[in-house]
Amino acid sequence: MNAPATHRWFARGWLGAGYLFLYLPIVALVLYSFNDSPIPNVWRGFTLKWYAALASDREILSGFWLSLKIAFLTACGSVVLGTLAAFSLVKYRRFTGRTLFTGMVNAPLVMPEVVVGLSLLLMLVSVQRATQGAFGWGFPERGMLTIWFGHLLLGLAYATVVIQARLHDLNPQLEEAAQDLGARPHQVFWLVTLPMIGQSLASAWLLTFTLSLDDVVLSAFLSGPGATTMPLVIFSRARLGLNPSVNAVATLIVLVVAVGVVAASYLIARAERRRQQEMAAAFRT
Amino acid sequence: MSFLRIEGLTKEFDGYKAVNHVSLDIAKGEIFALLGSSGCGKSTLLRMLAGFETPTAGRIVLDGRDLAGLPPYERPINMMFQSYALFPHLTVWDNIAFGLKRDGLPRDRIAERVDAMLKLVQLGKFAKRKPHQLSGGQQQRVALARSLAKQPQLLLLDEPLGALDKKLREETQIELVNIIESVGVTCVMVTHDQEEAMTMASRIAVMSEGQFLQVGAPGDIYETPATRFVADFIGNVNLMDGTVVEDQPDHVVVECADCRHFVGHGITGTPGMAVTVALRPEKIHLTRQRPADEFNSAPGRIKELSYFGSFTVYHVVLASGALLKVSLANTQRHRDVEFTWGDEVWAHWSRTSHVVLTQ
Amino acid sequence: MNALLRLVAVLRRGRTYVIGTPYVWLLAFFLLPFLILVNYSVSEMETVHPRALVSIKDGVLQLSVKFANYLYIAQDDLYFKTYLASLKYATVTTLLCLVIGYPFAYFMARARSTLQPALLMLVMLPFWTSFLLRVYAWKGLLSPGGWVADVLVATGIDQLLAAAGLIAAPGKLMNTPFSLVLGMTYTYLPFMILPLFGNLSKMDLRLLEAAQDLGASPWVAFWKVTVPLSKAGIIAGSMLVFIPCVGEFVIPELLGGPETLMTGRVMWDEFFSNNDWPLASTLAVVMILLIIVPLAVFNKYQAEAQDRQGGRA
Predict the structure, then answer these.
(1) ipTM score here?
(2) Omega before B152 cis (within 30°)?
(3) pLDDT tens, residue by residue, A229-275
(4) Which of A44, A130, B254, B267 could hold B242 in an S-S bridge, CB 3.0 to 4.6 Å?
(5) Chain B interface, mutation test: which of A93, A94, A171, A181, most B Cβ atoms within 10 Å?
(6) Strands B31-35 and B186-191
């Protein structure tokens, strides 16, 4: 469909303005991380001192390390639980309590985090009291483990959405063909299903990793002494006002994410292009 | 003792009988076709043979062994799926080897077998390719090779030619039958395409609403249909209702609106019975003069004609207003055809060219 | 005995564990917490933990359900206003996201197909970058001396905003309804764009050709064909923006001010500052009740989308 010229310029204008809106804060963040000035918003000169300061900023470094650990565990757990949940929803059309299951899996996607955080904390505290009374030691202690539980809940919802989309696209005849050829159900999963959904598992892993790394509210409710994640550190500093150390951390994160996303997109696009070339070659013979 | 025996097989979904108490005997090495339009239950029946659906009632006995309760991966049956279902992440070689690996065969035996299969379908050069790098016809051959690799006792084909275009279909039909016959495997195929069933199968079961309407060789079904439905389903047919006037062991005379039929075979019936005469279009001749026989002829006017290149179908309006379809081969090159719109003609046919149907 | 045999049979099937593992996990970590939340909101507190609702005292079964917290909320003007404000800001944000996001997604979907993956990636990139940091960046942009603040002051737009009551006074753009809504719209825009893009990019363009062939101008075809067909995307996007916005905490905390009090912040304060767990629980339960209708709509949409996807018995 050919759009008239004015239509095309309007489209480009809207898209351009939109992208500008989306990227403006990121650009500002990065630029001001190099600002050599005691007053954060006034540009005075170029400096790398904020980055240097990061190296000895123990609070941020330990927070970062903790967040990394939790994010890794969250991603792994979310993918496992998410695969099971996605499987249940796609493969088993009818089972008792399916509506409740669907509701519970989807709710964390939109439920306000303050509600999820509070209720989860209350539950964990109750469990802790109960075990304290029964066994003499309270489990679980608020800290890394409890934060992990919270992130896992959120991660499960997102992972399920991603994996389910790919699972439904899978031709069911592939799995039937595998069975027909002698593969038992678990073999079907490992040999046929898993390779086919592999990319969505990777996407789900990255998505939940990022979500966990970035989470503030759940971490706030569920953390304990000595378990301060990086977002919590940043949040407490941000609340107090503008702080160039935050800009420095932000720039590093943006850099890593940008490189990661661009690299991933490039790899995917290249694999796609190669596939199309091979297809074209196949038909020439 | 038949090789594959189906006894009283029924499949019910929520009160709806997709397959309704069907029974069948198939001999070893036969190519058998289940023919019917969509929703008739043929696919459900095939899936029950493969093990993907559990019968509500009835038995399936293969080579003396009852298959009840056996999951698909334990049955000596392999299926070629309609969509081919080739594993996209595996090469052609690995696709064909998949089933053999599940059996735990030693590596050299597997290699031997896969190479033999590749040779059978003439895809030796493509062993290292992935399915998306193959054309549709090549993919089908891989699917066939894969389903034959384990030397199954029964091969199932689900709409084998459905995905191919017309030209490819004709070539593939013959090739497919040759391969299957050279291997000697018993084969049950499912299709909605009559041509496919008639060219490929040695016996056909016409299926509708979960039941078999007629089972027999293609020629028998075409020339001797058992019911109106079957006559109408297979090919083109003219159906004329009439009453039995004379009933003898070796012939029957049926009085119809436009003509009197002298049918050269007997029927189980009585004079005065209402019957239908089925007459295939290609069995009818057209002349301008009135034919000698007082039976088996009717006057009419050509209302429509459809040109198909190798033959032409004429729609002849008879005295009662009924339409008779006549198919004449165009044996001459020149298109100054004998008949055209509006011509007054006589349609006539021989005494053995039509069939009387009582159902 | 029969029931026991059935139970054993169920436990032997592999699928019980496939469904069971996430199911049990969700019951324990999602449903149970919710029930405990409700429990806290209606319980009498015994120092640090709630007293049991049901107890036996002197041989009498006693049920004690305390509604005091709910009554307190209902009567106190502050909480009512806060809930109303939350709904108001969430609605405004959703509408803004729709107005900005729909054309954005539309133009993305109509761009050249080779360009679309790159366009999509460019929308996703900020999403993958920490949202906390980007909200913090707006703090800088809107504070005096920040780029956006300077532009708005220079163009005089801040006078308009002040006149409209969106900011307290010209030049003071931070900690106002304006900065709050701006921050929320910014953060949730990708959540609106993505489902809309998914929906619009899959639309069959031949439908538009058919409409034009039948005499509809492009503008009419847009409203009569494209928009109705994208209804599912609009609903999904709107729910993905509206529901979380109601309970949003971080953005009001960083960009909002004293007059933009939202339920998220109130709840947080009750819990962390006042240590009043029952009241915080009550506030949470009321928040859930507020969003229960949109939540049901979202759930229905998700279930329908999943049913459309599945389809095998």
Answers:
(1) 0.85
(2) no
(3) 999 999 999 888 888 888 888 888 888 888 888 888 888 778 777 76
(4) B254
(5) A181
(6) parallel
